[in-house]
Amino acid sequence: MVNKKGAVELSIGTVVIIVLAMTMLILGLVLIRGIFRGATENVDDINEKVKEEIKNLFVDDSERAILKLTESTAKVKQGSEFGVAFGVKNTERGAIGSQNFQYTTILDDPQIKENCGVSKETAEKWIKFGSGSLSVRPGEVDAERIKVVVPEDSPLCETKYRILIYRSDKGESPNSPYADLSFFVKIESKGLF
Fold it and tell me: In this predicted model, what pLDDT tens digit does every residue of 45-63 receive, in sequence order?
C-alpha cells in the first residue's frame, strides 16, 4: 500500500512539474516573439524615417543623388561598423514605370598602401553591401545604405570611397555613371570606452 501511494504522489508531482514547465516555455516563447516583433518594427520604422530624411534633402530638382553624412566623413572606430545612407532621384520626366538603378562602391585612394599600410583588396573588404540596385519611379526618390565594417586590427588612417550609380539599360556604367557620390572613412582608435 505504501508503495502505491508513493507512486501516485510521484506521478502527480511529475505532472505538476511538466505542466509548470510547459507554461513557462509557452510564456517565454510569447515574450521572445513580442521582443523580436517590436525590434523588427522599430528597424522598419527607422529605415522609413531615414528614407524620408533623405528625400527631404533633395532641394534642387536637378539633383540626381545625395549622400546622408555630416561633413562627408564616416568616423568609424576600430572593430565597429558605420552605415552610410544615400538617395537616388529619378529625374526622367514622362517615363513610364520604374527604372532600375545599380550602384557599386569602390575604393578611390590610389595611395592606400602608403596612407594606411593596407592593400586595396583589404580596404575594399571594409565595405559590406556596397553593391545592389534600386527601382525608382519617375520623379521619385529611393534610398539605400552601405556598411563600413572596420576590423579591430585596422590602422588609424583616412581613405576615400565612391558610390557609382548607373542604369545599364540606358548605356550607363560605373565608368560613365548617372551619379557619383564620394565619402571619406576616418578610422579612429576604439579607446578604452
Answer: 776 777 677 666 665 666 7
